[in-house]
Amino acid sequence: MSNEHRLIRALLRQPVDRTPVWMMRQAGRYLPEYRAVRNQTKDFLTLCKTPELACQVTLQPLERFPLDAAIIFSDILTVPDAFGLGLEFVEGEGPRFREPIRTAQEVAKLPILDPETELRYVMDAIRMTKKELHNKVPIIGFAGSPWTIATYMVEGRSSKDFSKIKKLMYAEPSILHQLLVQLSNTIIPYLNAQIKAGADAVMIFDTWGGILAPAQYLEFSLQYMEKIVKNVLRMDEGRKIPVILFTKNSGLFLSDMAATGCDALGLDWTVPLDQARHLVGSQVALQGNLDPAVLYADPECIQREVRKVMLQFGSGPGHVFNLGHGVQPETDPEKVSIMIQAVQSYERYI
For 108-116, which contacts have Cβ atoms below 8 Å and span 24 or more sequence positions? Predict the structure, then answer.
């Protein structure tokens, strides 16, 4: 049963023998074995869309580190790619869409997706990974939040000022809501298909929710994540399926996020865990929140910063150790080992 896993128990605020640990972007460019696979593929999307390769790189960090979870190798932009918007990843620039979405007519033309058809490669990667893991650790599935995905679809690429989507938000909010409804109605079955394929927990990544003013965050980001939380499967074949919400720069919104009915909140490094616990009480588990840049430091500094995070959370159930964002590509894998060892040996410092 997946609920026996340390990570799942912690996400459900049940007692665990030690704090579980995994990392956002734990499969990625900082690993030489990942770079070797990536160099043999045509492009990043080919890697995502080849289930055998996605499974292989999902498992790579687990073969190197004693982590408590696998997160399926994929990308938050698989959904708009499946809409047929011409996604490509440009070296040194990031994602770019040939056909951005900015009008009501363009939103209305977006197709209804069947996750086991247009996104079947994600489900196949989960099924393969599940088989290879033999239930040693749980698998985390994920999706981008409607707001975050919409930023890329409207801007057409990565952005620093988000001027196009903010213009749409203030000048023609009904169009943006139309898009966010479509995305929500796509992400719900997408996450449910991941769960049916074998994902033991799911996470919603709201990378750009923190760029919004509080009222706009509640209207254009959080209400759509809440809709997803309330409609995603929470039980499957006897397994309890925890849901994790992560909004970068979410300090102002933690109480509202906890009230959505999710099981856990992911935190970046800008919010101390003790303050977050004070705000949300016993409503949800907390995941985080070491600054990824700490992994550039010497071993003593890494160990010291890990202990600070653990001390900030304090005692009691409901903590999953993670970085406050993804592993940086320049990170030395040995520094990751030092961090994980510090987490797993923390009790000796209490």
Answer: 108/178, 110/83, 110/179, 110/182, 111/83, 111/84, 112/186, 113/79, 113/82, 113/83, 113/186, 113/189, 113/190, 114/189, 115/189, 115/190, 115/192, 115/193, 115/194, 116/193
**Residue 223 and residue 298: Cα distance in Å, rounded?**
42
**Which of 30, 34, 152, 190 is the catalytic position?**
152
What is the pLDDT averaged over residues 69-81?
A: 97
Does residue 102 carry a catalytic annotation? no
List, for residues 323-344, the tens digit of each pLDDT value.
999 999 999 999 999 999 999 9
Instruction: Let me know if 75 is a catalytic residue.
Output: yes
82-55-49 Cα angle (round to 5): 25
29 in active site = yes
- Write the CB contacts of 341 (distance below 8 Å, at least 6 apart in sequence): none
Catalytic residue among 25, 102, 239, 277: 25
Query: pLDDT (tens digit, 9 = 90+) per residue, 162-186?
Result: 999 999 999 999 999 999 999 999 9
* Residue 38: active-site member: yes
Asked about 114 being catalytic, the answer comes back as no
